[in-house]
Amino acid sequence: MSYLDRIRQCNQYDLERCIPFYIEDEQLGWTEKSFLKHLEIHDDVFNISDQKLSFHESLDTVEARSDAIQPVLWALHQQGVIDTWVDELYPIVKAFEEKPRLLIERASTHYFGVKSFGVHINGLVDKDGETHIWIAKRALDKPFWPGMLDQVVAGGQPFGISLIDNVVKECQEEADIPLEIARKAELTAELHYCSQGSRGINPDTLYVYDLWLPEDFVPRNTDGEVESFELWSLHQLRERTENTAVFKDNCNLVNIDLLIRLGMIDEKHKDYGQIKNELYAQALVF
């Protein structure tokens, strides 16, 4: 594997398997055709044609659409079609910080191929004059990517909370980082990718933060989502990212961005230009 392999692993999808998902007159996502059979009986909620999936014309407000879709999604979860449930509302938008067109259960976003957003925090430490980074090992009972490596803190961006407030919340929940330290996190990158898996299409945007932690600080998980933490050198991070498959897929994108910004991947690397072009590519346009 290579850095380019890591990036391309997060950008594999086939839109031929999907139809556009519309809200009113705008496309907001891509829904796999195989998922439509689960929606057909709900003809008071959805209109389905060969060209697109949309809402019934009577559902002409955010509130009406959100109220109508929630019991459908819950029923599909009870049937095992939607394989997990977070019980967290996610805003469906065309661009970040727009007014939501719909609020749906976070675990269902991939099934409709709508844009999702998250924060990933690099926990950095200046130790003996060199930069080190805290790495989290995901809990073994996590439904997705159990036991894989991750940033010290990461999480989806829920409805009704700012990016920095979400960073602070996740820092406290996942690594017991005090509020006064977490608020010093700095937004350093915005990464886009689009993947496709068993649940559908995932056009995702990661907001990457750098957070410098005190040398004597040791993260401690408080929500059960992390098995353990390790402090690595940047040389360890570079070697493991390029040569192993120990990280959750999208965490590799965050690692590569950090390694570029800190000069650990530079012009001397044979793929440097292509790595930057693909890593910082624009988001999938609907």
UniProtKB/TrEMBL annotation:
Keywords: Hydrolase, Kinase, Transferase. It comes from the Bacteria. Signal peptide: none annotated. One of its GO terms (molecular function) is kinase activity. Residues 114-257 form the Nudix hydrolase domain. This is NUDIX hydrolase, associated with Thiamin pyrophosphokinase. The keyword Hydrolase applies. CDD domains: NUDIX_Tnr3_like.
